[in-house]
Each structure stands twice: as structure tokens, then as C-alpha cells.
Automatic annotation (TrEMBL):
Protein name: Decarboxylase
Pfam families for the chain: Amdase (PF17645)
Top-level division of the source organism's lineage: Bacteria
Region Disordered, annotated ranges: 251-315
Record's compositionally biased regions (Gly residues): 257-277
Compositional bias annotation for Pro residues: 302-315
Length: 315
């Protein structure tokens, strides 16, 4: 059969992605990408360190970035993004800018990071007060809040899991529970941190329930990378991607959790984190250690559902 009439594959734009060695959500990144764009992923070298501030520093060293960018440049991407939230906020605003400069110099290609994309996305939706959800330990979550503060963003409430490994196994239900606990007071948006935390399917459902834009690490990374090359991220009714969605339920204000007042694992008021040293309402979801290899995937829900939390989103 003569197939010469097909003329070969359609031309593709290329997005280079530098991810940490333990990144497990390649498929999630692709879900935001239109058909005429290809992702080219590479990973940082393995280091025997659990998720922590030390790991964030190790996977963001400029020598590591230089080698990864040079490898990606063999396939001529139009932009390169560093897809790791903690690795790009651990050095603060100055550290994030230095990472972008180092990558751009190594490959002579426009470069960005997840944390830089987050600030860009918050400006896009005009959000200055946000709730934060992370799978991290308290110290890593504190570092994220410090970075946001440098960027002029106030954290109104937060919840975190305290995990140091196997973050990609966290089920959507735990993400939803944390989101409900973190959204207290007056927030313009919710941010779900960590590129290794699954979020794609839960974003539209959370936006409908919480009535505010919901951003995630992988979402803002792909949105910013695609925008840098004149393309648009795709996704079902997400406020960041679709201005129409910002005028819908996600744009409504004045929402309070069912029954009024913030939700907590036990139904009582949220207490400040850090032994009273921080004013930010905080809920720590300290569950059992992540499961070793060979055991069933997933993390047991670390808390009982809040009182009258409303229906869970269908995911």
C-alpha cells in the first residue's frame, strides 16, 4: 500500500522539561499539551535523599541544570522548563531567577521554572491572597510560604501531608481533604504545590466547590511554557486556562465552608502552625510513612473527613 500521500508527521513545537529523578507524572504533563507540541523530558541524577530542603537544593544545582539543558538541546526545544516546585523556590526569588539565567545560558533557549510560573499565573488571575496545599514537611512548606511572601503573595491558610517520598501515590481524595482545610478566611485562589502530586482531574471539581481559581504546580508549568512559545494549554474548564471559567463559579466570592467557619480534621477551628509562631491557619495531615515498594499504591487517608464536608468531586 502506498502511503506517500500522507506526507509525514505534522511539524511539532518542542518543550524541554527538566524534572527531578523521582518525578512519576509524565502522563499528567502531556494532558495539558496540544497535539502540535511535543514534550522532551530529562531527569536530574539520582541522589539517595528523601524529599526535603536538602533534596530541593541538590536537584537544583546549576551544574545539574547545565548538563540537563545541554542534553535537551540536542532535540532543539523552543523553551525549557524546570518542573520542580521546591527545587525552584528553595533559594527564594533570587535563586529562582539565577536558575532561569543558568539554564538560558547553558542552552541559549528561553527558560522558566515552576515557581516562577506560579507567580506569573497568580498575576494573570490577579490573586494576591492564596491558600496553599502541599505534600511536604513543615520546613519545606514554610520555605514555599517565604518564597511567596517575597513575591508579594499572602498565604491565608495551608495544609500539608508531611511526606518525604512516594508523593505521586497520594490519591485525589487526600488532595480534596487538604484543599477544604486550607481554604480559610478570604483567599483569591488555591495553589496545590509539587509537580509529583497528581492534580489534573481534581482542579475543575475543586474550582466548582470552592468557587475560586485552583492552580497546581504542573498546570502552571505547562501553561507558562506553552505561552512562551505562542501555544495554549488545554484542559477542562480551568480558570487559569480559560477566561470564561474565571467569570463562572470559580469567580464567585464570599464562600464559606458548610456550617460557616474553617474546616479541620476534627471539625474544630484551625490553629496557627509552628507552635503559634505563624499567623497562617494551618492543618497538618501527618499520616503513616509512605508505603515501601511492593505494597499497594496510595496513602491511607490521614484524617477523618471534616464534619459535613459536602459531596466529593467525581474524579
Amino acid at each position: 500500500m502506498d502511503v506517500s500521500f500522507l506526507g509525514g508527521p505534522q511539524p511539532q513545537l518542542g518543550v524541554g522539561v527538566v524534572a527531578p529523578f523521582d518525578f512519576a507524572l509524565d502522563r499528567e504533563l502531556w494532558r495539558w499539551v496540544p497535539d502540535d507540541v511535543s514534550l522532551h523530558l530529562t531527569r536530574t541524577p539520582f541522589v539517595p535523599v528523601e524529599v526535603s530542603l536538602d533534596l530541593a537544593r541538590l536537584v537544583s544545582e546549576h551544574e545539574t541544570l547545565d548538563a540537563a539543558v545541554q542534553a535537551l538541546c540536542a532535540v532543539s526545544p523552543q523553551v525549557i522548563c524546570y518542573a520542580c516546585t521546591s527545587g525552584s523556590f528553595v533559594g527564594g526569588l533570587a535563586g529562582e531567577r539565577a536558575m532561569c539565567a543558568a539554564m538560558a545560558q547553558a542552552g541559549d533557549v528561553p527558560s522558566l521554572t515552576t515557581s516562577g510560573a506560579l507567580l506569573e499565573a497568580l498575576r494573570e488571575i490577579d490573586a494576591r491572597r492564596i491558600a496553599v496545599v502541599t505534600p511536604y514537611t513543615k520546613s519545606v512548606t514554610d520555605s514555599l510560604e517565604d518564597y511567596l511572601g517575597e513575591g508579594g503573595i499572602t498565604v491565608t491558610g495551608r495544609a500539608y501531608l508531611g511526606l518525604t517520598r512516594h508523593i505521586w501515590k497520594v490519591p485525589y481524595r487526600d488532595v480534596v481533604d487538604m484543599a477544604r482545610a486550607a481554604v480559610v478566611g478570604s483567599a483569591d485562589a488555591l495553589f496545590i504545590s509539587c509537580t509529583n502530586l497528581p492534580t489534573y482531574d481534581v482542579i475543575p471539581q475543586l474550582e466548582a466547590e470552592l468557587r475560586m481559581p485552583v492552580l497546581s504546580a504542573n498546570q502552571v508549568t505547562m501553561w507558562a511554557a506553552l505561552r512562551a512559545i505562542g501555544a495554549r494549554a488545554v484542559g477542562p474548564y480551568q480558570a487559569l486556562l480559560d477566561p470564561v471559567a474565571r467569570r463562572g463559579p470559580a469567580a464567585m466570592t464570599g464562600w464559606e465552608p458548610p456550617g460557616g467557619g474553617p474546616l479541620t480534621p476534627g471539625g474544630g477551628p484551625l490553629s496557627p502552625g509552628g507552635g503559634g509562631s505563624r499567623a497562617t491557619p494551618e492543618a497538618a495531615f501527618a499520616g503513616p510513612p509512605a508505603l515501601p515498594d511492593g505494597e499497594p499504591d496510595g496513602v491511607e487517608p490521614p484524617l477523618a473527613p471534616p464534619e459535613d464536608p459536602g459531596p466529593l468531586p467525581s474524579v
